[in-house]
Amino acid sequence: MATEYKMPQLGLTMTEGTVTKWFKAVGDTVAVGEVLVEVATDKITNQLESNLAGVLLEIIVDEGATAPVQAVIAIIGQPGEKVATATKAAPVVTELLQTTAPEVAEPRGAYSAAVSIAGRIKASPYAKKLAAAQSVDLSVVTGTGPGGRIVERDIREYAMQAPTKASPLAVKVAAEHQVNLAEIQKETRIMKADVLAAVKPATVAKPLVGIRKVIAERMALSWNTAPHVHLTVEVDMTAVLGLKENLVRATGQKASVTELVVKCAAYALREMPVINASLMDNQIVMHEAVNIGIAVALDDGLIVPVVRNADQKNLSQLREAIVSLGGKARSGKLSPDEISGGTFTVTNLGMFGTDHFTPVINPPESAILGVCRIVEKPVVLAGTIVTRPMSNFILGFDHRLIDGAVGAKFMARLRELLENPSLLLI
Length: 426
Prior knowledge:
By secondary structure, this protein is of the alpha+beta class. The protein has ten helices and 18 strands.
């Protein structure tokens, strides 16, 4: 029996989700526990597993379209099973499909689903794109796809029979460049060169949605609300790199500079709780827990999973937490709880060769620590010029809550701990 697959609620505050990718096409077999669809909310992107087994009969919400929680986004059933029109989409989802769903290229060997509701013409997204490019009225085209659906070849064949003829390649190029063939004035057959000559330079615009929209809103809020001050100190990383190598030899496990930096920062935050505080509703909120967010770069933005009670974890536990959260962030499997409750953030751009930057505070936190690359530099020690692995550390802080002298003392203590990590044992 055909069953509705609905938009799940991925967090208490989630009201809608955007389908960013379907991992199955219509007609594909779906197993319970198999990744079916990727959904982006205003906070995270998650790959969702199917709780149903069968065949993907219909995709209701296309990639790029948004639907409310519990709206039907797909139908799963048995091969050849008919899907009742009434079950395909709620009115709100229909509206979203009509106004926001982007057109995507039609894959070979399979037809992308299109919704047929209240007499709408059934056509694949790519067929619609071709038709729009050539000003073809879909109502006069006979569909040869499954269930009478209009597909790519139907549009191409109709275009060849139209008064203004175009070569198949010209039709394809016109669709790719969004050129209207009806606007090309030519008595003979339109060729590829004619289409390319009609291509107009254009900019590509896409909606600000999902994680990119959240980043934009939060960073604008932070920069426009909190008066930022940035302090930079240069740290000799000899001891940190030495400790890192000793840990590798002693445990046989990979170690990184990140967990050592987080350990030292957590230690310093425990000593100077005002750096770990927040200014909320005209009140200074002193956080009992030291929850450090680790900024993770994604292909389409940035996310900050949180290591809770970082000051109570040893280096091995910090390493395990950071690696686990980083892996979940890149695979889109973070839970809402794993990206909330941070009291301080560490962002490391050293792996990109950065020597200096000014990080923006992640609200409602009051401070953020930027870490730059480690580079060999000449320094003077005991009157002798030697080379040392040096790195810049930048503290960005909210000057409404943290004074310059307090920020400077924190950075001085952090440098002391990094250059003498044995102090962590005291």
